[in-house]
């Protein structure tokens, strides 16, 4: 039986083949019937359905107890796409996102820009309080993966920009694989088969590298807007392996906070090491 990573690669190749022949058919008449051009897309959809069903079975077959860790930030934040409201929280089990959460910083003196219907189309990252906020180790851990070379793009928090993100940018990133979806990201080994992943880090902000030991509350990176992101925010999740392509999500709770629901604002005091 082929591995999950092999099937994921096949899924992306089929979509790429469909896209390539669709673009080529604009300039050239394909040497095959029109209906045949849809075969890669139909095959990709079938493989994708199989992946989704398999992912649900994997989550159900090996449930993990909720792990308590410290919060990955300090200050006043609010939750989006929270597993307190639904699982999978991001609508998919892919990339171990079953229990993932997004959080954005709230600043009364400098509020987050509101979602725009038409204008401004995009905003600079420094308009958002979360940009460049310190990210903290949620426990004593070992760094197993760390990258911060991808750029921080402009926001996608207007209706036209969101449509572009959902219909074009997200599809391209999904075809390119997990690292283009998560953007700059960091994976910590917490021990006992538990790993913490932070996504959408700011370019060039890593304070650690693979192999480093960190303590709870230590600054490890800064919040950014890289990867598949609408605005600067923190994407956090626990998982049972270091590889996003094959890992499964693990439910978490933040010490002293719990799991904030969508729209819920919370204050994290950080950790002793952060103070």
Give a description of the structure:
The protein is α+β, with helices and mostly antiparallel strands and 275 residues long. The chain has two domains: 4-61; 67-268, Glucose Permease (Domain IIA) (Distorted Sandwich), CATH 2.70.70.10. It contains four helices and 13 strands. Strands 2, 3, 5, 6, 7, 8, 10, 11 and 13 form a nine-stranded antiparallel beta sheet that branches. Strands 1-12 form a two-stranded parallel ribbon. A hairpin with a 2-residue loop joins strand 6 (185-191) and strand 7 (194-199). Helix 1 (4-27) packs antiparallel against helix 2. The longest helix has 24 residues, at 4-27. It is globular and about 65 Å long. The N and C termini lie far apart (51 Å). The mean pLDDT is 87.
CATH class placement of the largest domain: Mainly Beta
Q: Write down the CATH topology of the largest domain.
A: Glucose Permease (Domain IIA)
Number of helices: 4
User: How far apart are the termini?
Assistant: 51 Å
Oligomer: single chain
Q: What number of structural domains do the residues give?
A: 2
SSE series: HHEEEEEHHEEEEEEEE
The CATH superfamily name of the largest domain is Glucose Permease (Domain IIA)
Task: Give the low-confidence spans.
Answer: none
Second-tier CATH architecture of the largest domain: Distorted Sandwich
Outline, from the CA principal axes?
A: globular
What share of the residues does DSSP label as strand, in percent?
15-25%
Q: Tell me the radius of gyration.
A: 20 Å
Could you say which structural class the secondary elements and strand pairing correspond to? Answer: alpha+beta
* Nearest-integer average pLDDT: 87
Number of strands: 13
Helix content: 25-40%
Describe the sheet with the most strands. 9 strands, antiparallel
């Amino acid at each position: 039986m082929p591995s999950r990573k092999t099937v994921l690669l096949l899924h992306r190749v089929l979509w790429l083949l469909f896209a390539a022949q669709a673009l080529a058919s604009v300039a050239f008449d394909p040497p095959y019937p029109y209906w045949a051009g849809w075969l890669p897309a139909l095959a990709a959809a079938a493989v994708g359905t199989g992946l989704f069903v398999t992912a649900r079975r994997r989550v159900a077959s090996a449930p993990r107890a909720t792990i308590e860790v410290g919060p990955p930030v300090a200050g006043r934040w609010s939750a989006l796409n929270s597993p307190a409201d639904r699982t999978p929280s991001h609508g998919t089990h892919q990339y171990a996102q079953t229990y993932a959460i997004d959080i954005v910083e709230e600043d009364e003196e400098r509020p987050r820009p509101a979602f725009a219907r038409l204008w401004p189309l995009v905003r600079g990252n420094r308009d958002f309080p979360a940009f460049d906020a310190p990210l903290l180790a949620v426990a004593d851990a070992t760094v197993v993966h760390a990258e911060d070379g991808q750029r921080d793009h402009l926001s996608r928090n207007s209706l036209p920009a969101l449509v572009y993100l959902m219909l074009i940018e997200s599809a391209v990133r999904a075809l390119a694989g997990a690292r283009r979806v998560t953007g700059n990201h960091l994976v910590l080994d917490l021990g006992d088969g538990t790993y913490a992943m932070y996504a959408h880090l700011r370019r060039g902000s890593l304070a650690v590298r693979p192999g480093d030991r960190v303590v709870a509350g230590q600054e490890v990176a800064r919040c950014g807007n890289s990867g598949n992101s609408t605005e600067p925010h923190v994407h956090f999740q626990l998982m049972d392996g270091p590889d996003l392509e094959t890992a499964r999500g693990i439910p978490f709770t933040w010490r002293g906070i719990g799991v904030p629901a969508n729209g819920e604002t919370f204050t994290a005091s950080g950790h002793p090491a952060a103070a």
